[in-house]
Amino acid sequence: MADECRAAASLCGELDMAWLLNRAAQRLADAVQAEAVRHGIGMRAQLILSALASGGGRTQLALGADLAVDKTTLTTELDRLESCGLIQRRPDPRDRRVRIPEITEAGRRRQAEAAEAIQGITDRQLAVLSADERKILEESLRRLIDSPVDAGSPGVSRV
User: What does the alpha-carbon distance between residue 32 and residue 43 come to, in Å, rounded to a whole number?
Assistant: First the structure.
């Protein structure tokens, strides 16, 4: 990584914060994705299963909004998870045209196994940081994510 930073600095003349954040996120996401795939799912599927395991009752539309996953992508992931027996979709009692995805027992087991393995990967990736540095990083990233939109930048929105 240090070599990549030096190479980027020599090309750009300085290190760009967006590049650093993106590269760090990309490295962790690649490791998490590989681990999720070893458990027969992808990172996005693990995110969905984790959300369903933490509390159900959301419609597909609400789940997609909560996870910031577009409707088409969510439907594709839910279709795959359902075909593997990891979720089931029930009609919403208030509107039978609407579906409520629910995690199955098999889905709970897969999610828990993958979550444990992913936590190990995350811990190894972040082992270069002290416990205090890791806490500061997480708090800082949460604050960045929750920060208000810069009114002076058209087209910028919160994700």
Answer: 7
